[in-house]
C-alpha cells in the first residue's frame, strides 16, 4: 500500500516529530518503533509505555434493544454486566467463526461503548449496521483517538492527572472529564501489563499525548513492541491467530462464552460451538517454547517428533523477557497436552519445541480486593 493510500491518526505528526519509523498497518501509517523494539518492550515491562491505537474502531450501540441485539452476535452476557464494567468478547458469524475480537463495556448508562480491530472495523460496522434491529443504533466514533498507557508505573502516572483512576480495577470502564475533555477510560490493554485505554476527541489527542509524555516514567512505544508484548501475554491477534474460520473453542477463548448464553444457545454459531465444547474441536491453539534455532514465525510448520506435519505457527518470535523463542499455533488436541515434545520447521530445518501454558509471561492486571 502506497503512502498516499494510507490513512493517518491524529497523532501522525507527533510520531514523526519523535523520529518514529513509520509503516503501513491496518490501512494506517503507524509507528513501528522509536528507539528500538527491544528497548521499548523492556521499558513497558519496567515503567510505562504510551501507544497510539487510534487506528482501532470505536463506536456506541444505543437504544432499548441495544444489548439484546448485540448479544445475537457475541457469546458474552452483557445483560448482567454492571455499569462501569467492560468485557472481552468475540463477534461471531453464522458458522461460529470469529469475525473479530473486541472490547465492549458500559462506561455510562447509554448502551455500549465498543472497540474493534483496525483491519476489521469497516466490515464490523457494516455487519452491525445491516443486522442490528429494533431501535438499536450504531454510532461510529470516528471523531475520537485512542491512547493506551501500559506498564507497572502507568497507574501512578495517570493518578497524577486524575486520582480516581487509581481506584479503578481491571476491566473497569468510565466516562469522565480528563485533561479537560470528555473521555472514555478503561483499565485494560493488550500487553499483559496493568494500564489504561483512553478515548479522547481527535482535536485534543496531540495535547493529551504530549502531556502524558512529559512524565519521565513514560516513553512512546511502537507497534513492534506492542506485538512482542501481546505474544508474551499469549493474546491472539485477529487475522493471524484467529480469523473468520476459527471458533472460540479452537482458539482456547472459551472464557468469553458466558454460562447463561451457552444455556440459551441464542447467538451466532451456537450449534457448532456447543458441539465442539461437548465433543472437542478438530484443532486447538497452543503455546510453544522453541528450544533451538531461529524464531518460528507465522506460517512455519509444526511437526510431531517423527517429522509428520501436524499444524502451523500463527505467531512467533523472540521473547525479550524470557530470552528465548516462543510461538503460538494450531494442532490436533492429541498433540496439545502440556509438555508434549514437537518440532517447528524453520527454513527447512526442524527444531525442538515443547507445548507450554500461556501466557508465557505472567500478566499483571490489577484486580481490586474483594470486599
Compact overview of the structure:
This protein has 371 residues and is of the alpha+beta class. The protein has helices at residues 12-17, 37-46, 66-70, 121-131, 154-161, 205-213, 223-232, 259-264, 270-279; strands at 21-25, 28-33, 48-52, 57-62, 86-92, 98-105, 112-116, 137-140, 144-150, 173-178, 181-186, 195-201, 218-220, 284-290, 301-303, 309-319, 324-331, 341-346, 349-356.
List its salient traits.
globular, 19 strands, alpha+beta, 9 helices, 371 residues, six-stranded mixed β-sheet, six-stranded antiparallel beta barrel
Q: List low-pLDDT spans.
A: none
Radius of gyration: 21 Å
What is the 3D form?
globular
Continuous helix count: 9
By secondary-structure content and strand pairing, the structural class works out as: alpha+beta
Helix content: 10-25%
Beta-strand segment tally: 19
Largest sheet: 6 strands, mixed
